[in-house]
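hi support,

uploading two proteins for the ticket. first:
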Amino acid sequence: MAVAQEELRDSADSSKAGAVLLEVRDLKARVADSETEILRGVDLTIREGEVHAIMGKNGSGKSTFAKVLVGHPDYEVTAGSAGFKNENLFDKEPEERSHAGLFMSFQSPIEVPGVSNDEFLRMACNARRAALNKPELPPLEFFAHLMPKLKALNMSPTFLNRNVNEGFSGGEKKRNEILQLAVLEADLALLDEIDSGLDVDALRDVANAINGLRTSKNAVLMITHHERLLDYIHPDYVHIMDNGRIVRTGDSSLAQIVHKEGYTAL
């Protein structure tokens, strides 16, 4: 029997617990301009330094939860709250949430014709730096900032000259998403099925890059169907979502049960 997140945390050394990054309480949301409710009361707390994984059947609300947090216009919050770094997340526009340090990697990143990766990444980086009252990075300094991150992902510098995701394979798009995460140095990364479409080598590269970005001050929330991602990025908590709620919380053993016996075993 899985125990609650608070009980798991209490069983660890509380002196090591970081500050709360995300505090979600009784969050309910529906498809915009409809009565179709998808989230039916989600509760979740994420602290600095933690890795969380959300698993669940298709249609359980996993991706909707992440999209609601970043302000996707297709969804409308009907009840509940979400605090990010002690501020009301829902008072902020999507770009303000990004500038505050929230990042989401999408299942199917869109193509942006006519905009080079280099230009896009530098603009995004400098927008985030401006929000943090840091000076902009000119092209040469940005290139020096970017190269180690490319190397960590085993990405060729030729990626920088290509238009954002245009003509990219599924694996290239996922690597590009993590490159964006690395450049923005986000405080909380929401990774929606980052493992989908990746072969074993690409998954290892992406996972190693994500692990390399982890610090005691940031956190990761992964949405996945597969245990294999959790073999590379070890979660502190695994949550099972069903019918718009988190119904079980435990450690990585929950993912092993799902892998062997399916969600019906839970």
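and the second one:
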Amino acid sequence: MAAAQAYLIDAVRTPVGKRNGGLAAVHSADLGAHVLSALMERTGIDPAAVDEVILGCLDQIGPQGMDVARTAWLAAGLPETTPGTTIDRQCGSSQQALSYAAQAVMSGTSDLVVAGGVQNMSTIPMMYATTAAAGFGHPDPFSGSVGWVRRYGDAPVSQFHGAELIAEKWALTREALTDFSLSSHVKALSAQAAGFFDAEIAPLAGVSADEGPRQPNRAKVDSLPPITAGGRITAAMASQISDGAAAILVASERAVAQHGLTPRARVHHISARGDDPILMLTAPIPATAHALARTGLSIDDIDLIEINEAFAPVVLAWLAETGADPDRVNVNGGAIALGHPLGATGARLTTSLLGEMERRGARYGLQTMCEAGGQANVTILERL
């Protein structure tokens, strides 16, 4: 008996707004509502046929609280009969939302599921839920845990610390890290000029293009101080704080036939793996190895790759370990240039990956990203 398939019908995103930029004043539910409405319009699907909406979001507090997936669906004026679920796997939240949507479809329990994510980091700063809790006298997530301290001691649990450890472990120089970071902007600006992102973006609040990419100024970047005293990681090597949302329609074979849909790709593989939570950002390496072993593919079989640019050393260490062709990786820039609206980035990567696979006639595309806690998701898509 053939395995059930999960098909990607379409995907859409907002432009990625920079911190305090054009999308800063948009309520998180309205950010999500915008892409949900655009997805329904683009696919022509009857919204009442959607079984579930699953959105990723971090810092689920204030305008991002109370199950923002459900709120966004209702704010879009869509049917009350469709439930919503909001999930948090840190930076990989909306990629995990896609995994859950695909699993629901492949299991036969759902036929049409919307996956995506939303994040307004201008309104709700990164780690706000944790800092807000601290204001009420609650400890940070690790303080006071006997088991955690017994296992990991008092080592800093910080993405900045992890990025420095990776740069040190893989002997990545500041010059190499800077070269990679500047190239992200160059590639993103080139993609924008060529109109590569235009079809995937639903303009919002007068913003029609990603606000992050800018012309590199090497002298200015070289003058930046390291984030950590004595380190080599600067702000220019980190993803940008951003606002945005993205949504993907996932369908079963039955739904494709019933609704006359034309899939753009199918989900070839989904998985997630963990690694050292102190290094934190290295999990894409074992996660990619696991995904390739499960599918029988080699890294050379993958035509295009999106690995989230949380920090420059994440991608460079991954390249060193996987032997992937750099010319197939983040070909239109990454989060260092385009931004990283945490809960939405996974779905944003999928949306952009689909478009580039179609432009190039690629068969396989792989997406992965590091996540807090030393985790990583991997999704492999096959273009149809």
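thanks. also noticed: The two ends are 21 Å apart (CA to CA).
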